[in-house]
Amino acid sequence: MPLFMMVCTDKPGALETRKANRAAHLDYIRDTGCVVQAGPLLDNAGDMAGSLIVLDLPDMAAATAWGMNDPYAMAGLFADVRLQEWKKVVG
């Protein structure tokens, strides 16, 4: 299966939205079983300000659907999302 990279940037001032939906987001990651790697992007103060997620899914449509159903996305956390096929070479 191909891998897909999601780079999500939080809306300014949305840290409380992120914190309020973090447990549901982590449950979604666990329950869907398609996340290879994930973690928050940090701002200069060290606060969570976005997400980097690598998905193992059959195609772009499945990756798009996964992203749209993420509790973070459903809560309106992100200002923008970049989704692109990714080829693992190292690691």
TrEMBL record:
Q: Which residues belong to the signal peptide in this entry? A: none
Q: Which InterPro entries match?
A: Dimeric_a/b-barrel, Sec-metab_biosynth-assoc, YCII
Q: Name one Pfam family in it.
A: YCII
Residues covered by the YCII-related domain:
3-87
Which branch of life, at top level? Answer: Bacteria
Q: Which family does it belong to?
A: Belongs to the YciI family.
Alphabetical list of PANTHER family matching this protein: PROTEIN YCII
Return the protein name.
YCII-related domain-containing protein
* Record lineage: Bacteria, Pseudomonadati, Pseudomonadota, Alphaproteobacteria, Rhodobacterales
